[in-house]
Write a structure and sequence with these properties.
This protein has 117 residues and is of the alpha+beta class. The protein has two helices and six strands.
């Protein structure tokens, strides 16, 4: 069974390291722009699907420059730095050649702890 959210966050590889997705009308707010949570989810998924990603996401910070509207969204993912347990990523979303969202994402392996959350 495929859930609606899984279908609506399915990224397509262009084969050259870049990705894209067709933003539909499903996750839009009344102004016509896509919901910020959906946008954050596709940025997170772009990093998680990257062949060099070694750890789970521990931080995601996004700057929404413009609203993401229905249509093709181009996704660029860059690994900025990789250490022994932590990686720093930059994700850029573009539409019609203009950057609309920029995100910095950190992945890391957490150390064992006695704390129980």
């Amino acid at each position: 069974m495929t859930f609606l959210f899984d279908r609506e966050t399915a990224l397509v590889s262009r084969g050259d390291g870049s990705l894209y997705i067709e933003a539909s009308d499903v996750y839009r707010n009344p102004t016509g722009a896509c919901f910020g949570g959906w946008v954050a989810a596709i940025m997170a998924k772009a990093v998680q699907c990257h062949e060099d990603c070694q750890s789970p996401i521990v931080s995601l910070q996004a700057n929404y420059i413009a609203g993401v509207t229905p249509g093709i969204v181009d996704i660029s993912v860059r690994l900025l730095k990789s250490g022994a347990s932590t990686q720093f990523w930059r994700v850029e979303l573009s539409q019609a050649g203009h950057i609309v969202v920029v995100s910095d994402i950190v992945t890391s392996n957490r150390k064992p702890t006695d704390l129980d959350y």
